[in-house]
Specification:
The complex is a heterodimer of chains A (758) and B (220).
Chain A (H helix, E strand, L loop, with lengths): L7 H4 L4 H11 L5 H10 L2 H4 L4 H4 L9 E3 L6 E6 L2 E9 L1 H6 L1 H18 L3 E11 L5 H21 L2 E9 L8 E11 L14 E6 L9 H5 L20 H16 L5 E4 L4 H12 L3 E5 L12 H6 L5 E6 L4 H10 L4 E8 L22 E6 L2 E7 H5 L27 H9 L8 H4 L10 E3 L6 E4 L6 E7 L2 H6 L1 H18 L3 E10 L6 H21 L3 E7 L3 E2 L2 E2 L3 E10 L16 E5 L2 E2 L6 H7 L11 H16 L5 E4 L4 H13 L3 E3 L4 E2 L9 H7 L6 E5 L4 H11 L3 E7 L3 E4 L3 E4 H15 L5
Parallel strand pairs in A: 4-5, 9-12, 17-18, 23-26, 25-29
Antiparallel strand pairs in A: 1-2, 2-3, 3-6, 4-6, 7-10, 7-11, 8-10, 9-11, 12-13, 14-15, 15-16, 16-21, 17-21, 19-20, 22-27, 22-28, 24-27, 25-28, 29-30
Helix pairs in contact in A: 7-8, 7-10, 8-10, 10-13, 18-19, 18-21, 21-24, 22-25
Chain B lengths: L2 E6 L6 H10 L3 E6 L10 E4 L19 H11 L4 E4 L1 H8 L6 E3 L7 E9 L15 E8 L3 E3 L3 H6 L3 E5 L12 E5 L5 E4 L17 H7 L5
Parallel strand pairs in B: 1-2, 1-3, 3-4, 4-11
Antiparallel strand pairs in B: 5-8, 6-7, 6-9, 9-10, 10-11
Chain lengths: 758, 220
Amino acid sequence: MSSVIEGLHRQLGLTDEELERILGVLGREPSRAELAMYSLMWSEHCSYKSSKVHLRRLPSEGPRVLQGPGENAGVVDLGDGVAAVFKIESHNHPSFVEPFQGAATGVGGIIRDILAMGARPVASLNSLRFGDPAEPMTRRLLEGVVAGIGHYGNCVGVATVGGEVAFDPRYAGNPLVNALTVGFMPAERRLSGRAGRAGDLAVLMGAKTGRDGIGGASVLASASFEEGDHAKRPNVQVGDPFQEKLLIEACLELAERGLLRGLQDLGAAGISCAVAEVAARAGMGMEVDLDAVPLREPSMEAWEVLVSESQERMLALVDPERLDDVLEVCRQWGILASVLGEMTEGRSGGLEELGGPPQPQRGSGGLLRVRFRGEVVAEVPAASLADEGPVYSRPLVPPPPPTAGTEVPLDAEVAEAVLAVAADPTCASKRWVWEQYDRFVGHGTVAGPGHDAAVLRVPGTGRAVALATDGNGRYAALDPRAGAALAVAEAARNVACTGARPIAVTNCLNFASPERPEVMGAFAAAVDGMAAACHALGLPVTGGNVSFYNESSGRPIHPTPIVGVLGLLEDATTAVPTGFPRPGLTVWLLGETRVELGGSVWQRLTTGRLEGPPPVLDLTAEARLHQLLLDLAARRQLAGTHDLADGGLAVALVEATLAAGVGAMVDLPPVRGAAALPPEHVPMAALTSESASRVLVAAPPEAAEELEALTAEAGVPLARLGTTGGDRLIVPGLLDLPLSRLRDAYEGALPHALGDPV
Amino acid sequence: MVRIGVVTFPGSCDDRDARAAVATMGADPVALWHGDGDLRGVDAVILPGGFSYGDYLRCGAIARFSPVMGAVAAFARAGGPVLGICNGFQVLCEAGLLPGALLRNAGLRFVCREVEVVVDSTATAWTSACPPGATLAIPVKHGEGRYVHPDPAALAAAGQVVFRYAPGHNPNGSQADIAGVTNPAGNVVGLMPHPEHAVDPLLGPTGGRGLFESVLGARV
């Protein structure tokens, strides 16, 4: 083995077997540049080599799906000629190493994915997980991540409209930063990162290429953290949202004027990934001229230019006759543009320029031939990078069944318990977070953060989409299959609470090292649970992301499948608000309350343990509940709704009353299985159980008859709890608290925990 | 139809929102480009929110030198109505068309919040249709919105304080709760809150409508 290669592949994150495979593809030793390209493209982050065999089990087709997995982002048909583009992605490891830039570039990256499909990125949601907020390290991470998300989204003019934040010591050494962006476009304008025909030009647009983010996808995203890993900071990219803003406007003008054959973002693995994917998707090759790349540092070597993850760059595929127009648009917006490459036919010359004999290549498609300073530095089959990397069926151990039961004290004083749950940082208001985000830009935010789901007007139509992200790592830790299914159900339920019909899913699967059989077992089970829920609820998965190696010094995170659900509302003016909007409404609970405290907030607060089965999910009951919500919303019978999730009915009542500052007097719902409890424990079970498939509803009194009839018809359990009004939350005989106290607990908790009282 | 120009600087984010608000209020929005010195005969000009030129220097410090600002200054001197929103307000202060300056928020963080502002002066092109003392619900969203002036009392006495944050609503530590000011002639107004985000009832409160109604001459 030559000195160039000796040991280098391992530093780059490739195994010896993977190097053998590269030698087989090329029939010779790879150059340094080629080795760098393979190391990135075959990294877990880029190639999905450990997850691919499992992800195939997720449903991805449906009548509204215009583009499923495999492109830069999923596309769904909203009707009236408008399509939504959406996807969620992780930026976990960069955000731990450098919270501000890591989170900021995560937002920037997902925005470019949406842009690459031809859509204007409109709004983002974020799912964040951190350790205990009282820990100084958590505060540093949270401050940085939130500021980074805000900085990028605010400056680039994409509203941040929702998401969720949860705290658990298991994320202390490996926070999660999952960013979802949605965009809209005329359905017929859909672009793809696919080359058109030979002779088309690949135009590199945007920022100069520097040494930042080299190895981001391999060294950083596809390995676990160990002590002292702050040395990985140079692997983190640095964002420039102003540059991205110009890039967005330029790309959209190019798309609107029909000047593009295709568009591809540059993210993980930089130029390598972009050129390999656009060529491979079309079964073509490309002549790549790295001398056309504007460099921040002229001393960069070819391999560095190829794999740099410098931000704010796009690759436009252009008919040569339109090149001048394209360059003029870029000049107008003040962004750099240069011809990086030219598409070539699927079969071109051999490998003789690098000295080897012509080789029969794997698969179909063409060659990427990369020149730099007069030399050919790489010459590899495009498909071998993009599609023909290793695929692993890693050994797995199925997760053990959850323990049978859990002992959780239910003899607490009710008022104290409600205040404690409301002030738990995971349940409490995230206003501290979302007030740092511009939720207004884009003149489309019907409902922003603090609602069950964000609701966005669809430009040029009377419609709206609703979006929610959910995922409960505690449930998934107890039972990965159930946890993933519950995440789908909850996100879809949040969307249905607005009156929108859930139509598509994007997912981000955050797990520890796939090289641990128990992690792979949990991953496989989570995919199964997600697939089952998506099938039952009629939801195709149109794209997403897998993030492995989320562990620090051998301590894995909870398995955390995050689900983003997109819903469609035919009439934006019928969007149902979250909570109790006014006095004089009847309060109902849809769904059945059982004694289910495994994985609950109350279990954590009172025992500090994580045990027992998570709540049981009956997917047909869940589907019936969603349909009922849509029917009631369409008949304008719902004045307000609120999903029950973390913290159960207790948190739901607090949030519903604080939403518009309207109190309520309610009785507690019946609890199935209460007979097994001492009578004095039943109220706390009703308030803190986290049974799935439940929604709090506020409806005008005159709607009662129809609501009861439709609910009975749908076979959904119904309990009339009471009425809205006043400025207190009252459960007769059990609880009587002014909203001001609830507000202090709920709104004050996070600022207090962060040492930043309002 | 009244034609209202909205300037797009590189990095403007709320230019599309401002044009949409103009259209919602029944006027004709005209897109103006930072590199053009031509205002295309518009009846009023809006400098929108955003991060002009990335705001990597002081906010608004680069935008004031753009070709369009020469035309805006001339338009303002001739009495034309000019409204600077957020970053646009910062640009007008940097350009010397409005008094005072905007500093980093007292809380040191970006703040996006629905606030109430009280109309302090109706003797401007952009508040003439507002009832004096009216309280308007309009969102703010900025990191550098703390208004400072060497003599806020004198500014108020001169009738140049146009908006103040309602008691308890000051989001950034602005002196004397000042949310917006005008030039002595009353044709140039700048404010940190975003009236363009507050014209459509589907999207929330509609406290911004009064500013557009004022410049459109539609008395309420």
